[in-house]
Amino acid sequence: MKTLLLALALLLSSQVNASEREFHCEARYLFGAKDKASLAGSITSNTSLLDVAYSIDDQPEFNAGVLTIDKKAVRKYPFYQKFNVDGGYALYMPDRMDSMFHFTAIVEKDKASDKLECFVESIE
Predict the structure, then answer these.
(1) What span, in angstroms and rounded, lies between the C-alpha atoms of 78 and 102?
(2) Contact 84, 93 (CB under 8 A)
């Protein structure tokens, strides 16, 4: 019985790791004070993100361990869900992250927003 439970636990944990996918996003600017912005992290489920880091011109703006969807948020962008980040940032990710390999993420602080083009890869 213990062997069966251990095997089931290993199977479930491998399925969780298999569904985790890393994403990398960038934006480049032709005008204004910024040259580039980048966002990186892991998609662990359709409603959770892990180790999300955002930087502007290689200067860290935030680094969040675990982000979960803000279920009380009023939908600002169609087909996007909101994740709150410490420091007054909001991260908007597509509703269906589980089926995408390329998407646009939106990072907001106060009234400023950045759109970043993102690419997703599976973790082996």
Answers:
(1) 17
(2) no
45 with 19: CB under 8 angstroms?
yes
pLDDT at 10: 42
> The tokens of 9 are what?
């636990």
Instruction: Give the other-Cβ count within 10 Å of 67's Cβ.
Output: 21
Residues 89 and 62: beta-carbon distance below 8 Å: yes
Beta bridge partners of 52: 64
Q: How many domains does the chain have?
A: 1
Domain holding 70, by residue range, is 20-122
112 domain-assigned: yes
- Residue 48 is assigned to a structural domain of this protein: yes
What's the whole-model pTM score?
0.79
Q: What is the DSSP code (8-state) at residue 99?
A: G
Task: Let me know if residue 70 belongs to a domain.
Answer: yes
User: What is the model's pLDDT at position 63?
Assistant: 95
**Residue 88 phi, psi dihedral angles, 5° rounding:** 85, 10
pLDDT > 70 fraction of the chain, expressed in percent and rounded: 82
Residue 67 lies in a domain: yes
